[in-house]
Structure formats: C-alpha cells, structure tokens
C-alpha cells in the first residue's frame, strides 16, 4: 500500500546528541514537510521541500537540518543546538490534482530527551 | 498576524447534534487551499476535507462540510449528526504559494468532545 512511513515511533536523545528521524513515502509526491507538535498545541512547520535537492526553512528551523537527496526520502536531524527537542514530529507529503489537493501524514515520531 | 486562527480551544457537543468548528485565515495569495484534519488521541492526522480558493461551491465529504465565506476569510467545518468517535482535535490549515514555493500553515486546533 502507498503511504508515508516514519521511524522510529519513539526516540530518545541524550544531551548533546544529534538524532535523525526518518520519513519515506512511496506516493510519488514532490512536496514533503516536517512539523513539530507540542502537547495541546497545533503543528509548526520546521522545513519543507518542493523538489529533490531543494528545501526551505519553515517557522522554527533553528536547531534542525534536513536533506532531500531522493524524492522518496526527507530525513530530519535534530541537532544538539535544539535545546527543547521533546515533541511529536510529523512528516507529510502532498500532491495537487485537478480540482483537489491532498496532504498525507505519517504516523509520527515521539522524541524525548533523557 | 496569525495566518490561521481557531478561536475555540475546546468544545462539548451532545451526540447526534451538529457542530461548527471555526476557522479564519489571512493571506494575500489569490490561489490558496484550505484543509481540515482530525487528530485522535493516537496522534495520526486524518484528512477530512479540502476547499480551493476558486471553488464556487462549498466542499462536502460525507458528514463533513466546509462553510467557505471568502469575503470574510472564513472556512468553518460543519459536522452533522455528531458521533462519539468524532471526539478528537481538529486542525484547520492553509496552503499558500510564495515565490513558487508552497507553504502549509496550521491553526492551534479545537478539541471536540462528544457527550453521550
């Protein structure tokens, strides 16, 4: 089945450690996104990519990095510079059809700091 | 200024009643899209409905309809005949295009609780 796969489901980070969250899609979508969600709050855009080898910062990009070497993959690295990384991270991809648009989400990764 | 505003942090609605979740937006992009998503306690984001800025008619998907009032920049979600399974967080989102790049912005959400 087509969809977006995020892994791992749960991730723990030690102080000063970089961690990478995986996001893979087999929907052949050009656009991919990373969002952060804090408890009881909405989604905030971290990074997005419209095409391979190109990406743009979202509203809260500091302390994060991404790459888009393949259309299917958009990994997010949470660096040691991100001082408050504990959150729920959601990856998404989108496609625009003739009269409709669809945005699909992965099942998310919960990142916690040890 | 907030791009997407959801003014109802929480709502309680009796089962079988209709419910309206408010969403207002702000954009200068003439070609934009509006989405509603449902997020149950499991965390997954479930697509509910989409409205394009040039669509003449309000979008409908089963029990969901979008009350699109373009001049007022309003895109309220209406759920008819609410069910216990409708209890969840609901997010309104807007897609804009800035200099060829697309950007999606989400509101802060409304927590809907359906009362038996």
Number of strands of chain B: 12
The sequence of SSEs of chain A as H and E is EEEEEEEEEEE
Question: Structural class, from secondary structure content of chain A?
Answer: mainly beta
Query: What structural category arises from helix and sheet content of chain B?
Result: mainly beta
Largest sheet of chain A: 7 strands, mixed
Number of helices of chain A: 0
Alpha carbon gap, first and last residue of chain B: 38 Å
Span of the ends, CA to CA of chain A? 35 Å
**Uncertain runs of chain A:** none
User: What is the number of E strands of chain A?
Assistant: 11
| Principal-axes shape call of chain B | globular
Oligomer: heterodimer
- Strand fraction of chain A equals over 45%
Q: Report the largest inter-chain contact.
A: A-B, 26 and 24 residues
Report mean pLDDT of chain A, rounded to a whole number: 90
Strand content of chain B: over 45%
Radius of gyration from the alpha-carbon trace of chain B, in angstroms: 14 Å
The amount of helix of chain A comes to under 10%
Quick description:
The complex is a heterodimer of chains A (114) and B (116). By secondary structure, chain A is an all-beta fold. Chain A has strands at residues 4-7, 10-13, 19-25, 31-37, 43-51, 54-57, 64-66, 76-78, 87-96, 101-105, 109-113.
Report what the structure shows.
The complex is a heterodimer of chains A (114) and B (116). Chain A contains no helices and 11 strands. Chain A is mainly β and 114 residues long. Chain A is globular and about 45 Å long. With 116 residues, chain B is an all-beta fold. Helix content of chain B is 0%, strand content 54%. In chain B, strands 2, 5, 6, 10, 11 and 12 form a 6-stranded mixed beta sheet that branches. In chain B, strands 3-9-8-7 form a 4-stranded antiparallel beta sheet, with no helix packed on it. Chain B is globular and about 50 Å long. Classes of the chains: A mainly beta (114), B mainly beta (116). At the A-B interface, strand 4, strand 5, strand 9 and strand 10 of A face strand 5, strand 6, strand 10 and strand 11 of B.
